[in-house]
């Protein structure tokens, strides 16, 4: 048996620094929002949005951010490969599921009533 390939994640010091800066910018956005409460809503929201945008931009320049972008692109590519059912097919499948649910409900109800009759009326003799 062959050993499975080992996946090694190589993270450079600069990449770790980018992630740390991104986290600090996000924390700074919250601190600035609450710290600027006396300067007015425009200053609060401006600082929050600017620092959040800077944090997100910093994250997306890191290797983890680039991997997230690549994952998103791959996901979109896979969704484009999906063959979606037509409206008629979707309606038919919905009808099949509804009919199956009704039949199963009737079957379970009949099973329940049969077991109730066998146990309570025949075996235990509890007549209602």
From TrEMBL:
Organism domain of life: Bacteria
Gene3D superfamilies: Preprotein translocase secy subunit
Membrane spanning residue stretches: 19-36, 42-60, 93-111
Cell location: Membrane
Keyword terms: Cell membrane, Membrane, Protein transport, Translocation, Transmembrane, Transmembrane helix, Transport
Primary localization class, coarse: membrane
Function, in words: Essential subunit of the Sec protein translocation channel SecYEG. Clamps together the 2 halves of SecY. May contact the channel plug during translocation.
Subunit structure, interactors included: Component of the Sec protein translocase complex. Heterotrimer consisting of SecY, SecE and SecG subunits. The heterotrimers can form oligomers, although 1 heterotrimer is thought to be able to translocate proteins. Interacts with the ribosome. Interacts with SecDF, and other proteins may be involved. Interacts with SecA.
Family label: Belongs to the SecE/SEC61-gamma family.
PANTHER family cross-referenced by the UniProt entry: PROTEIN TRANSLOCASE SUBUNIT SECE
Protein name: Protein translocase subunit SecE
């Amino acid at each position: 048996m062959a050993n499975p390939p080992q996946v090694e994640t190589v993270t450079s010091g600069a990449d770790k620094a980018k992630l740390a800066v991104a986290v600090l910018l996000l924390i700074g956005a919250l601190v600035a929002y609450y710290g600027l409460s006396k300067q007015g809503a425009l200053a609060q929201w401006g600082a929050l949005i600017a620092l959040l945008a800077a944090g997100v931009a910093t994250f997306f320049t890191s290797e983890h951010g680039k991997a997230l972008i690549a994952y998103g692109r791959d996901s979109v590519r896979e969704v484009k490969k999906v063959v979606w059912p037509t409206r008629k097919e979707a309606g038919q499948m919905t009808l099949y599921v509804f009919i199956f649910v009704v039949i199963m409900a009737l079957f379970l109800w009949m099973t329940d009533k049969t077991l109730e009759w066998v146990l309570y009326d025949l075996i235990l003799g509890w007549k209602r």
